Amino acid sequence: MSREHKLIALLSTIVILVLGLSCALVAALQWSPLAIATLLFVLSLLLSLIAVKLYQFWRSSLMDLTSFTQILNEGIGNVAPVYANEDGLISELQQEIAKLALKQGSNAQSSLVALSSIMDSWPIAICIFDQDWHLSYRNPAMYQQLKLPMLIGSSASDNGFEVTDNGQGLQHSLKHSYFGKKWLVQSASYQDQSQQKSPRQWLFCASDISQSLHQHESIIQQNLIRVFSHELRNSLTPMASMTDTLLCSDSLDVTQTRMVLNRINKRSIHLLEFIGRYADISQLAPTHSTWFDITLLVDEAKTVLAQDTIVAFHGDKQCFGDVAQLSMVLTNLFTNAQQAQEQANEDDVQQDLKISVRVYVQGQQQCVEVSDNGMGFANLDNALTPFYSTKVNGSGIGLALCREIIHQHSGELTLANEGHNHGALVNMSWPIVN
Q1: CA 108, 112, 113, 115 torsion: positive or negative?
Q2: Is the pLDDT of residue 433 over 70?
Q3: CATH topology of domain 290-431
Q4: In angstroms, what CA-CA distances link 174 with 133, 163, 253?
Q5: By CB distance 3.0 to 4.6 Å, which of 225, 294, 406, 407 could disulfide with 411?
Q6: Does the structure show a pLDDT above 60 at 32?
């Protein structure tokens, strides 16, 4: 039996006992039955009212404490208990709970004030919305950008924000038409872990990246101008020289004219290939991944190699990825190995080219490794930089194109040298998504 039931039983017993003693007393005094019944009726009403009031007083004090602690547990700290008595154990317990709530509230408030003081000085535009999408904070940078009142408590839509979800209401994101392409926009939800059942808050921040984008575009433009100028000058200068020689002759020699036209044709083809490869890296189509036999792509890529080149294949023949794009990757890697070998031969480093292709699956990752026995990468730090090349006839596009294709597969491409003069190693991996 609980204490509450025991209290009810005790009060009922006292009422019954008092009524019984009163009935015995008036019977001894020889009261009439009507008088006895009237006395018992009045006493029962009076005693029941007293018992009920005593029970309600005891229960209400504990219920107030229970409600107060539940409110504090839900993270609401702007309430205080109403004291039933100025002294006594219940009052002391109420005071102790109130002190604890005040301490927790002051800690939370000091944390919020500290966080606000930090965000107030940030150049990043920041605002916070509560679970009902009402504005609870915005820093000066946000106010300066939007030039709106942005009153605390106003809705997100009133401030120009658009709330979107994933169709199930489980994830939300915030957007604003003011923050366009030159802004890096992020939105996230969070909860105060220091308080149980804390309401979810929504954070929106936007940082201006126009200067970084401008610098990046300037670097790309400078690289484009430098590379295209170099390629055009290397091709057009000999063309102009050879055609000038022919035009200065009184009569055109058929053999000499054919030789000049052949060289102009080769240089023109080189320029067209260069422009075509640049177009490949800037206009990659979306990947369409399937399972296929990668040995067919290896055999196809062998056509760019010298006939005496040895290509060894190891591992699984079945590979997951975009057939057309991965064919471009292998062709570019084989071409790079062949060009590096030819340059090494010109530097009196005579060695037959050997290429190894290894394919395997590791966990949920498709892995492909391509290595050769050449001199390795001359400059690993810049090998993947577009338009950078240490080869005499290199354009610096091949490896950049390979990396872009692997990135299209949501994967990674890394380069390494297998020791001193032991060749280059290209590691590629991307997730298998069925």
Answers
A1: positive
A2: yes
A3: Heat Shock Protein 90 (3.30.565)
A4: 10, 5, 74
A5: 406
A6: yes
- Two tokens at 244? 């000038």
DSSP 8-state code for residue 207:
E
Helix (H), strand (E), coil (C) string for 103-166: HHHHHHHHHHHHHHHHHHCCCCEEEEECCCCEEEEECHHHHHHHCCCCCCCCECHHHCEEEEEC
Q: Using DSSP, state whether 350 is helix, strand or coil.
A: coil
> For 10-42, what is the HEC assignment?
HHHHHHHHHHHHHHHHHHHCCCCHHHHHHHHHH
Query: pLDDT tens-digit profile of 203-249?
Result: 999 998 888 878 877 776 776 676 667 667 767 777 788 888 888 87
Pick the CATH number of 122-208 from 3.30.1340, 3.90.1200, 3.30.450, 2.60.40: 3.30.450
Q: For residue 44, what are its two tokens?
A: 């029962």
CA distance 414 to 256: 48
Q: What letter does residue 308 receive in the DSSP assignment?
A: T
Pairing of strands 354-362, 310-315: parallel
Count of positions (residues) in the chain: 434
113-137 per-position pLDDT tens digit: 667 778 888 889 999 998 889 998 8
Separation of CA 38 from chain center: 81
pLDDT, tens digit (0-9, with 9 covering 90-100), for 332-341: 899 888 888 8
* Sign of the Cα pseudo-torsion (11, 16, 19, 25, in order): negative
Q: Give Cβ neighbours of residue 423 (< 8 Å, ≥ 6 apart).
A: 371, 372, 373, 374, 375, 376, 417
What does R_g of the chain's alpha carbons equal in angstroms?
42
CB 187 within 8 A of CB 204: yes
The number of C-alpha atoms within 13 Å of 40 and in the hemisphere containing its C-beta is 17
How much of the chain, in percent, has pLDDT values that exceed 70? Answer: 72
The H-or-E segment that residue 199 falls in is none
CA atoms of 206 and 224, how far apart (whole Å): 31
Beta-carbon contacts of residue 238 (< 8 Å; ≥ 6 apart): 263, 267
How far apart CA 130 and CA 202 sit, in angstroms, is 6
Query: Please, which residues have CB within 8 angstroms of residue 357's CB and are 6 or more apart in sequence?
Result: 294, 298, 311, 312, 313, 314, 330, 368, 369, 370
Least confident of 32-36, 160-164, 168-172, 177-181: 168-172
Q: Which amino acid is at 173?
A: S
Q: Encoding tokens for residue 333?
A: 């890697």
The three-state secondary structure class of 198 is coil
Return the bridge partners of 319, or none: 292
Provide CB contacts within 8 A for 426, sequence distance 6+: 333, 369, 370, 371, 402, 413, 414, 415
Lowest mean pLDDT among 48-57, 229-238, 312-321, 386-395: 386-395
